[in-house]
Design goal:
Blueprint: H1 20-23, H2 28-37, E1 40-43, E2 51-54, H3 57-65, E3 70-71, H4 100-108, H5 114-133, E4 141-142, H6 143-160, H7 167-177, H8 181-184, H9 191-213, H10 221-227, H11 238-269, H12 271-279, H13 284-295, E5 300-305, E6 309-311, E7 314-316, E8 321-325, H14 326-329, H15 365-382, E9 383-388, E10 393-394, E11 403-405, E12 407-412
Parallel strand pairs: 2-8
Antiparallel strand pairs: 1-2, 3-5, 4-12, 5-8, 6-7, 9-12, 10-11
Helix pairs in contact: 5-6, 5-15, 6-7, 6-11, 7-9, 7-11, 9-10, 11-13, 11-15, 13-15
Length: 413
């Protein structure tokens, strides 16, 4: 049985990095306490060493946008120290500072440009419709496996031009990437096992890379990297090669997949909002932004201070680990009224920080929103209700706010 959250402990002893707090979804009260009592909070002792917690919305944006004060490159982007697992030590552009970050990001950015999204929309709609049309009406099934994972796998295969029949390997590699014991505690996978699992990923993408490099440039992600000026020699740097491939896989998987699951859960938690959405399908685009805010699929991002910084009367020293808790920022009562509630017509739903802020803002945010919007339009066309009929099973992970099982039944119009 999980240890109870430290609601009554001394404030200095609060450690919101404990993975079990996310597995049992009990971290919210701790974040509320930190926002209220100690929004720039230093935890001296955790399984990932000492770290600062940034829990208020405006402070998170300040850290995220000031890349000259807070580096992504020095220590990486998760609370786990990058050198803690040398077997799976990776490099990628989200964990780089300018100018390297900007050069590599620019190479793959065309994949999610407005013109490409317009081309992808009918593909997404066709695949969403196919998935929904084959759901077992009248039976209980796992929404995560049948819908969230399936739609995400199909879209990842499209973006990479990856063999369609092997698309579920992409989901598996994404799960392995974020399954470190530093993020998941006892539920995590040992580094040696993860490294072994990812050798198949290296092998598959090496073959694809060589094949695309020998062709004329295409519009899939591997072709863009293989022909990009700042990335074409990436295969000579194995940590960077695998790191960027996995970054694009995880980025394309976790945000969309867990927002699809979280949206269904939230609408069932707040049935008046589900009723409002059924009556007003024109609210779907705004509701999608609110689902992403409510779920916050990426719980945190980490920076390392490169010089001493004063914040709210505290001195963050150069070299200190600084963790922006996006989940807490998206529950900041000073920004989002009744923040724990899903409100489908919330006026400032799009102001959330679930995609980050500043130059590291999630490159695929528009694609994630597009997939969710199209899916909910197709759900609305087919089903009166997607009913949650059991408790969700959450992933005990302090980085990805994942849902592993969501038992539902669908009720047609």
């Amino acid at each position: 049985m999980s240890e109870a959250p430290q609601i009554n402990d001394r404030i200095e002893d609060v450690d919101v990095s404990r993975s079990e707090l996310y597995g049992n979804d009990s971290v919210g009260k701790l974040f509320a306490r930190l926002r209220r009592e100690d929004p720039v909070h230093f935890c001296r002792d955790s399984s990932n060493g000492p770290y600062w917690s940034i829990t208020r919305f405006d402070d998170i944006k300040y850290v995220d946008i000031n890349h000259k004060l807070f580096s992504s490159e020095v220590g990486g982007i998760t609370i786990a120290d990058r050198d803690a697992e040398p077997e799976v030590e990776l490099e990628n552009f989200i964990a780089m500072d300018p100018p390297r970050h900007d050069e590599q990001r620019k190479t793959v950015a065309p994949s999610v440009a407005p013109t490409n999204l317009a081309r992808l929309e009918p593909v997404i709609r066709e695949r969403a419709a196919d998935i929904l049309d084959h759901l077992p009406v009248g039976e209980t099934f796992n929404w995560v496996r049948h819908v969230s994972v399936e739609l995400t796998a199909r879209m990842l295969a499209t973006l990479f031009d990856f063999p369609y029949e092997d698309r579920h390997k992409l989901i598996h590699w994404s799960d392995v990437t974020t399954a470190s014991p530093q993020l998941m505690g006892e539920a995590g996978m040992p580094a040696a096992q993860r490294a072994e699992e990812l050798t198949d990923c290296v092998r598959a993408f090496t073959e694809l890379w060589q094949e695309r490099a020998a062709r004329e440039p295409g519009d899939d992600l591997i072709s863009m990297l293989a022909h990009g000026e700042s990335t074409r020699d990436m295969m000579t740097r194995p940590k960077e090669f695998l790191g960027n491939i996995l970054l694009l896989i995880v980025g394309g998987n976790d945000t969309t997949r867990n927002s699809i699951s979280g949206g269904v859960l939230a609408l069932n938690r707040f049935p008046d909002q589900y009723a409002k959405l059924r009556e007003r399908p024109d609210l779907i685009p705004n509701a999608v932004a609110e689902m992403i805010r409510w779920q916050t699929p990426v719980i945190h991002m980490r920076r390392t201070a490169v010089e001493d910084v004063e914040m709210r009367g505290k001195t963050i020293r150069a070299g200190d680990k600084v963790v922006m808790w996006y989940l807490s920022g998206n529950r900041d009562e000073e920004v989002f009224e009744d923040a724990d509630t899903l409100i489908v017509d919330r006026p400032n739903a799009r102001a959330h920080v679930a995609f980050g802020y500043g130059l590291h803002r999630c490159m695929g945010n528009r694609l994630a929103e597009l997939q969710l919007r199209v899916l909910w339009e197709e759900i609305h066309a087919r089903f009166k209700l997607v009913e949650v009929v059991g408790e969700p099973v959450r992933v005990p992970n302090n980085f990805i706010r994942g849902i592993a099982d969501l038992p539902v039944q669908v009720h047609p119009h």
